Amino acid sequence: MHTEDNCIFCKIVNNDIPSYKVYEDDAVVAFLDISQVTKGHTLVIPKHHARNIYELPTDVARDVFQAVPAVANAIQRETGAIGMNVLSNAEAIAGQTVYHFHIHLLPRYGEADGFGAKWETHQDAYSSDDMQAIAAGIKANL
Fold first, then answer.
1. Which of 41, 48, 100, 102 is labelled catalytic?
2. Is 122 tagged catalytic?
3. pLDDT 10s per residue in the chain (142 long)?
4. Quick one: fold of 8-116?
5. DSSP string covering 117-137, please?
6. What residue stretches are annotated with the HIT domain (predicted)?
7. Which phi and psi (to 5°) does residue 74 adopt?
């Protein structure tokens, strides 16, 4: 298991600092986010340290994403949430503040529950040719 000495999530993985764990297996830990943006807000992290999605090895991603539905369903059953946002931020521009890959599970209870995830769309700014070029460029980089 690869860990970083100064990483708060690695310290949680190693039980060096306390957390409110809700799930743990050989590769993954899930625990309540101390910010509790909404009741039940949980983080799912790999025990393997990776900065974010860009550095996440495929096998580690498989382990994390395999745990996400079980944890999400447990949160929903416990809290009665009517929806859930599943998100991960990569780098500061996207809102990442802890540089250890993690997935936020944010239970949703209604429009005024404390979390907003609305964005502008720009579909009129891209022609069919633009969309084909973007898609081709991404495919070429896989």
1. 102
2. no
3. 677 889 999 999 999 999 999 999 999 999 999 999 999 999 999 999 999 999 999 999 999 999 999 999 999 999 999 999 999 999 999 999 999 999 999 999 998 888 886 778 888 899 999 999 999 999 999 9
4. HIT family, subunit A (3.30.428)
5. ------GGG--HHHHHHHHHH
6. 8-116
7. -65, -40
